[in-house]
Amino acid sequence: MALIVQKYGGSSVGTIDRIRNVARRLIETQQAGNRVVAVISAMSGVTDKLIALAHEVMDNPPEAELDVLLATGEQQSIALLCMAITDMGYKARSFTGQQAGVCTYGSHTRGRIAHIEPDQVISALDEGCIVVCAGFQGVAENGRIHTLGRGGSDLSAIAMAAAVKADLCQIFTDVDGVYTCDPRVVKNARKIPVLSYEEMLEMASSGSKVMQARSVEFAKKFGVVFEVRNSMNNNPGTIVQEENPEMESLVVRGVSIERNQSRVTVSGITAPVAYTAMILTALAEAEINVDMIVANTAHDGMARQSFTMNMNDLGAAQAALKPILPQLGPKARLDTESGLAKLSVVGVGMRSNVGVAATVFRALAEAGIATGMIATSEIRISTTVEAGDIEQAARVVHAAFHLDSNEG
Amino acid sequence: MALIVQKYGGSSVGTIDRIRNVARRLIETQQAGNRVVAVISAMSGVTDKLIALAHEVMDNPPEAELDVLLATGEQQSIALLCMAITDMGYKARSFTGQQAGVCTYGSHTRGRIAHIEPDQVISALDEGCIVVCAGFQGVAENGRIHTLGRGGSDLSAIAMAAAVKADLCQIFTDVDGVYTCDPRVVKNARKIPVLSYEEMLEMASSGSKVMQARSVEFAKKFGVVFEVRNSMNNNPGTIVQEENPEMESLVVRGVSIERNQSRVTVSGITAPVAYTAMILTALAEAEINVDMIVANTAHDGMARQSFTMNMNDLGAAQAALKPILPQLGPKARLDTESGLAKLSVVGVGMRSNVGVAATVFRALAEAGIATGMIATSEIRISTTVEAGDIEQAARVVHAAFHLDSNEG
Lengths: 408, 408
What we know:
The structure is a homodimer.
Chain A: E1 3-8, H1 16-31, E2 35-40, H2 46-57, H3 63-87, E3 92-95, E4 102-107, E5 110-116, H4 119-126, E6 130-134, E7 137-140, E8 145-147, H5 152-163, E9 168-173, E10 194-196, H6 197-205, H7 213-222, E11 226-230, E12 238-241, E13 254-269, H8 275-285, E14 293-297, E15 303-310, H9 314-321, H10 325-328, E16 333-346, H11 356-366, E17 371-377, E18 380-386, H12 390-400
Parallel strand pairs in A: 1-2, 1-9, 2-6, 3-6, 4-7, 9-11, 10-12
Antiparallel strand pairs in A: 4-5, 7-8, 11-12, 13-15, 13-16, 14-15, 16-18, 17-18
């Protein structure tokens, strides 16, 4: 008898009919001989409505109270889902984050899971219940409610799977799995059957929006095997698990694209030391996520550094960096460029295969696409291109690695 | 420095503007030098919407899950009220029933308060917070959420006042207090400044809908002095407290009326023993609240019993009694009468004053109003009249005891 955790997002429980659909899936999974824990989000739209209500009261509601308010969204959906399961003749029991033993730390509205005490959940499973847990929430040591921020329900599911030692954690979403590239961009993109945690992490941080990196990191840390699959059909999804030697047979697993990128360049740097730390500290204090970083020295002997970031952060980045320019050098200046996109190829096979970068840049060059900043990790190569070139870039790179066929 | 518990019902927090109004009242109370605990209901309409949502899923939702669903209503209002207080520059902290230490027992959707562990509430008060607790909810020993059923928020407030040893518990509602009679019926009805618990109990059970009897019983048991007052103005309300000798100076405190009454009469009873128990058991098993009971023996030597009840229960009462008629006697029969109303006069002064009943029935007789069943307690006299006579009956009895002036 296997123990399976299934996570359903807000759109999967967005209407009473969809809640019934989820109830049926959970029952089928139990009927197939499994113990089942569901982790679910608030019905889609509910969280936004609650936030709007809070903003009717004040512009910057205290986050501790926002958590109390937002946690009601999942509490409603767990109750309704248990009702639907009961209505179909099966036993169910709901658990709020606190009742499920989800202990958190950190800030309100972006709490982190410290650990889960799953005794009550396991008792309910032992009684034959389908267990339905509220995702996205837990309780801090001081007894206050924490929500986990964006992507928090995925994290709840992965953490619950680790705590109850589940055999599998299925993340149900509105896509069939992780694709070799966005199918809206590359028509012949294929679903990837198996990925390593590292590949999933690189894809998450390079534009594939299927899951947030922190959930993947948690799964990797606790060895939770998970599957991303579609709540609207029965197609097998993408399994994400520990890397194994077989995976290296494919040099490149997929191509990610990320739009709306901007670049900031600080040039004319003559400060002798620690200027990188100075720049990055200023950006971090402004809560700006810097993506690619390129540093070099220009022909005039002065240093320059470039960063990419989401274009929404550009204004804040300029505001954060301007005050420190004088400390960087008398001629230090700031230049910015928007209208960029980022293309990344990801695959653990890169570690043991040379020439991946050459293939990427040859394909782009042959298509006449100019590349900008370049960044690499052990299993990823990223480059910026003009926003208008990104779709063609994705198609030619996807083709260059034969990702539309089964042979990489 | 006094400690005051203030309870606000659903209509008092029914809109964001009204929530702000409550926030202002709480702040004023704190600024006047008090420690303040608010106990509040869900925004009006929210609970009904949640129940409708549950019924979209199934006809008879499991009550344990209904409690999980309904508890979100108060959880939302406590968060919003704390935001409003914060917005005005004061410290506030919300508590769900569980966080406030409200321990319950009994059935789901009609839980009872076992006790309250107010340590966290008191800590928050010590930190200078205005404490905002969710009424209507608590947590059972098994960790599941209980709601307290109708009138539960009043009970939460009274119980919290007992637990934190409050100096006063103010029950804010949409009326100025308890009146000598319903002002819509008797134009010159006056607000009663002080009532004993017993009088409040008799008025609650005889038609005054201001508060449920069980909240008054709880206050009496723990000696909680409470005040019923209007959340929309600053008028002093009605204080309810332990009886004291001064209260006896008024023979009659008020006149209650209750409409929509029906009478059921079982006649031709020849069963030798225990027939009253048999009849009342049948009605109790059908969950019918019997109000007045009159038993006597008719001229033919056969016994008869009459009961009053809300007319909505009449059909169920007939269904419950028909099967046992053969056991009551070969000629036992059932008669019913609807279109009745009940008039009650209440006052602790009755104990030491004779002639109260005579005054009531003389006043009614002089007005040509026929009376039906009569029931009395130590501090109450009730009688049924035709529904069409109830308003005039209330007026003449109100006048007979001079309740429109300050001398009873």
